[in-house]
Design a protein that fits this description.
Blueprint: H1 3-16, H2 19-26, H3 30-44, E1 49-51, E2 56-58, H4 60-83, E3 92-97, H5 105-117, E4 121-126, E5 141-146, E6 157-170, H6 172-178, E7 191-195, E8 203-207, E9 212-216, E10 218-223, H7 226-234, E11 239-243, H8 244-252, E12 257-258, E13 264-274, H9 282-294
Parallel strand pairs: 3-4, 3-5, 7-10, 7-11
Antiparallel strand pairs: 1-2, 5-13, 6-11, 6-12, 6-13, 8-9
């Protein structure tokens, strides 16, 4: 059997978690796909995949082998394309970890545009909000927010994509009920939907057009999930700081209003984080380049 074909088959089964789906993608029978993986396991003297009648998953050894084999194959594809003086089209599954706030119309519209440009890339997006281990869990890259690269994982490559501003917003219903602030001092005592993921407190130093003031809010709800805070704001529960990409359509439709546009509580840099610069695959490189130019506040 062709060793390279066995490696490709193993990686495809690992990504799709199915022998049948992997066999269909490559164009062979499920029985032959199983033989390819068994050949690798016999050659290595260890089990790479756990198999049941309904589920396929990687063993601990399988994770290690998968990550190394995947990098090898992607690097080989790029070398062959370069030798043949052919531009390799991005393809395969891009496994991506992103902040919870990526579950928004603004961000998904950018994913849709990337899909239109690169239809052979399948996006596998994790929005669990946890700090995934890129290497051990087989992620191609992660989008992470930080005030500086020093706050990200050591040993990983971090490329800044955009500076994300969190603007103060509220629904018209809330502002009619509680009053529309005309200046920073008017924010005192207002209900706050607090994003706990940014270490905000009830007392904040906010910058106005010409000065800075200490404001005391009244927290009515806190969460590290921006989506639930956005929904609470739409229901008129209070003021909330949210990234602009989450609220573009709500603001355009009048469901949310920006409160004191010149008062920005904080700005956080969005980084693309990935394991290595070596043999960076076409799907990862094009995704990073696309996001660098398409996100608001790009660098």
């Amino acid at each position: 059997m062709d060793t390279m074909m066995s490696l490709r088959l193993f990686c495809t089964v690992s990504e799709l978690k199915s022998f049948t789906a992997a066999a269909d993608r490559i164009g062979i029978s499920p029985a032959m796909a199983s033989k390819h993986v068994m050949r690798l396991e016999n050659r290595l003297g260890t089990r790479l995949l756990n198999r049941t009648s309904r589920h396929v998953s990687l063993t601990e050894t399988g994770w290690l082998y998968f990550n190394q084999a995947k990098q090898l194959l992607e690097g080989l594809d790029e070398v062959e394309a370069a030798i043949g003086n052919v531009t390799m089209a991005p393809r395969g599954t891009l496994k991506l970890s992103a902040p919870v706030c990526a579950a928004s119309n603004g961000f998904v519209s950018r994913l849709a545009e990337y899909n239109r440009r690169y239809p052979d890339v399948c996006l596998d997006v994790d929005l669990s909000g946890r700090m995934v281990n890129l290497v051990d869990e087989g992620f191609d890259l992660a989008l992470r927010r930080a005030t500086s690269p020093d706050r990200l994982d050591l040993g990983l490559v971090a490329r800044p994509l955009a500076d994300i501003e969190f603007h103060l917003m509220a629904s018209p219903e809330y502002l009619e009920r509680a009053g529309r602030p005309k200046g920073l001092a008017d924010l005192n005592g207002h209900a706050l939907l607090r994003f706990s993921g940014a270490n905000l407190s009830d007392i904040m130093e906010l910058k106005g057009a010409n000065r800075q003031s200490k404001i005391t809010f009244r927290t009515v709800m806190s969460s590290d999930n921006e989506t639930i805070l956005q929904l609470a704001a739409l229901r008129g529960m209070g003021l909330v700081y949210l990234p602009k990409w989450m609220t573009e359509q709500d603001i355009a439709a009048g469901r949310l209003e920006t409160v004191l546009p010149n008062s920005i509580a904080f700005s956080i840099t969005l980084f693309a984080v990935y394991p290595t610069r070596k043999h960076l695959s076409a799907k990862v490189r094009t995704f990073i380049d696309f996001m660098t130019t398409s996100l608001p506040g790009q660098r």
